[in-house]
Specification:
heterodimer; A: about 220 residues; alpha/beta; Rossmann fold; B: about 800 residues; alpha+beta; 4 domains; 6-stranded mixed beta barrel; 6-stranded mixed barrel; 22 strands
Amino acid sequence: MIKVQDLCHYLPYGDEQITILENLNLSIQDGETIAITGSSGSGKTTLLGLLAGLDVPSSGSITIDGQLISAMDEDQRAVFRANNIGFVFQSFHLLPSLTAVENVRMVLELKGNKDSQALAEHYLEQVGLLHRLQHFPGQLSGGEQQRVAIARAFASQPKYLMADEPTGNLDENTGDRIIELLFDLNRQHQTSLILVTHERRLASLCQRQLRVFQGKLREV
Amino acid sequence: MLLKSLLRADWRSGDLRLLLAALFLSVFVVTAFSAFSERLQILLVGQGQQFLAADQVLSSTKAVDEAWLDQADDFDLQQARYLLFQSMLYVHDEPKLISVKAVDDGYPLRGQLQYRVQPGLTESAAHGPQVGEVWVDARLFELLDLTIGEQVAIGDADFIVAAELIAEPDRGLSLFSLGPRVLMHHQDVAKTQAVQLGSRVHYRYLFAGNPQQLAEFREQLTPLLGDSQRWMDLDQSQPTAAGIIDNAQLVFKLASSIIIILASIALAMASQRFSQRHQHQVAILKTLGLTSQAISKLYIQLLLLCAIPTVLIAVLLAWLAQTLVLQAIADHLALALPELSFMPFVLGILTALISLAAFTMPALWQLKSTSALLILQNTQSAFRQFSLKSMVLLFLGLLLLLRLYSQTWLFSVLLLTGLAALVLVLLLPSQALLKRLIRLPLPLTARSGMALSNIRRHLHVHAIQLAIFSLSLGLFVLMLAVQHQLFAQWQKQMPEQAPNYFLINVSPQALPEIQQWMADSSIKAETFYPMIQGRLSKINDKPVQDHYSRDELQKAGVNRELNLSWSDSLPEGNTVTQGMWLSGKAMDNKVSVEAKLAEALNIQVGDRLSFTIETREVIAVVSSLRELTWDSMRPNFFVLLGKQQLADFPTTYITSFWLAEAQKNQVSSLVKQWPTAILIDLDTVIRQIRQMVDYVGLAFQLVLFFVILASLMVLMITVQASLAERRNENAILRALGAEKRLITGSLLIEFTLVGALSGVLASVIAQVVLLVLQAFVLHMPLQLQMGLWPIAPILGALLVGFAGFYSARQVTQVSPLVLLRQ
């Protein structure tokens, strides 16, 4: 369970500070699917980054499964991410010089998994890319790259999956297939899904929708 | 496992290869160069030492205490000795004044003797004649009608002529000993009875061995030396050889430092590029849960895993390459390749360690602080190119490397701070030149227009590139210029027709006859100078011994009799540095003194000098100081007096002249007609010096190759670094319909222009540094090198243009779609 209390986040802008998020309170239950929406620059991606422990809030606290991640240092948060959180990004963020299977294997190797090759193939099979194992990201379409990213995210068997505009770089048809895959796997792996999107259609598939507006969070 | 995946990824991406290539070249160049330089110096110094036939020579007019020589044993030094004295050689009962050199079995310790037993077959030997045998100067064979195996007498003893003596390595040390040389065994001296109490004999003690042991031995012995004993140095005995070795060593030191700096800059830039291009990877790894510590460990492991074999291969190939090159040179010159110490390999590995620690690690260290947020923000870089800390480390690393090579802090600090200041200063004219270039109303084609627009967009990056290119090219041109200057200087000193014979002991009666004979034989001699021996006894009426120590007098060269002379005109090659050259009556009671002697004894124009000639005192006032070229192969004099003061003393004459190989048979008739005149053949000495200049010439060519290699490395890496962001621009341009040829052509023009501009700056730098070097280091007259000015712009345009074109081709060969996707 994720618990956010009195979260504020500011960014320096010259001599001043810009308020990005202000006094946010939020609880996310295990297995829940949540969409964070908002206009461009509203702070939704910042919130996702804070929830994932990629950054720490200016004030307030974030507790995940009883662990106060907002008080952790960078390395502690990294270890926490490795064990609990998976990511899917708008720009896929695969390593361009590794093949599809090597990209998935890498996350397994990070966790010291001895059977990384077989597992990586298994997850790529789940996303329908068994025939693309040895292809480099540059040789794959956008949809295929996102599927590799999804396979990589689930391969680490995270409890929480954070997705930042997972269909933002894809056409509608491909986007639909990716959403379907993401939700299927989410159900299959019992993962809590927190996704940032500006697409209402995608947001509507989630159990809860939260909208960030002028630094505040409200349930839709 | 993760390490293996990353290794695969990095190898494929090419960034790691670039970094390793820089490291490889850095270690390869440094190891190969220092090994090459070490061996070449051994060859050069060895060649120099041959002039002494030893590493150190102690000269004495009486036998030294044998206990001194026992000390040499304590220092593990090799020893040899010989005696020099004059005697009469009797052939068919006809006497001939000869200069005897009685050598022991150890002589020579360095170099070889050349002798001939069968006509036309010159052989070399590391020892002199056996007991009871003599080797006789080749000239005497014709003069005295001698044959091998004949019996001759020296003093009371008979000897068998075993060989014709062709060359002694240390002939230059006793050039002016009277009479042709006869070599005999040391043990035969006693039976000749030629050396008696009061005989004029020179004892020479030769030592060779470990330089440090030699220095300690010399230090221990020096305080014990008497008035008649002195160490003979290469500087005194062969100033030309010593000068060549000194200058060559200085240039090698400069060249090796330049190569180290270039290679290090290349490595630092490659490391920065590697780190910059790995930010994204690190951000992904951090997002996936890798800690900063794990990231540092991972990249350090990755680096070491690749660096260790790279360094080992580089060291091995360096050894192989320099051995092959030097073996070829040694074979060509029929020399044995000197043994190599471990030092170049230690230096190569130390270079790798220091380079990795100072140039690569800071860049990798910076990686660990990459924020994982980069992923979400989707930004390219918050990466600080060459932060202050990394610049300081780069500077310290370079300083340490330079110190390692040059062995002096002062040289390292001066060179590095000078160059660093130069780069900073160069940024200003670089930017100014580029701004001027883009405003030029050039006839624009689509390509040149795009090229200028590229320069405008990348002005800042180009300014940095221009500063670095111009420095590299400047250093390269400087090397060319220094080589050119040194060779010009040596060639000037050693022109093709430099005199190869000295004729001394010419009596006043024989003088007009010999001059006539020379004119008839078409032999052009230098001036005949009178020569009278005298000793400097007082300066301003104060005895010199009271004011100067024995060492100071020895250093000034006035602890023995000087050759005094007079001349109506300023001798060729002499330059008056103070006072005025006087001639005729004006020179009466005046004296002109060599400038270095004057400096050593603090003699000024206007001082009164007293000379003891025979038993009389001659007093003269200093009217001028002169600089001489001692190694010009012409007669040179420390002291020139007025003719009127020397006219009463018995005199002989000296001159030098050049004889072509074909004319050499004429000298025997000269010696036969005027038997008291002594002819000295300088060909061997000149040949030795020329050979040394040839070695240095070959070495310079290789040094320039290394400098070009290191410069090219820097060029390629800077071009590569700046091309990364061009990929995107080119992808967009090509997507919008720009032809591949247009983009390639514009890049070619852009880099060619930048290269040419950097060449112009390089020429300015090279010229300024050259003037400074001429004035303060090489001690040459200041001279503009206009011939070098076009080299750098042409070379810059070609090299940078080619490098840009080569890299540009790579960019345009990739589909724009792939580039846009990346």
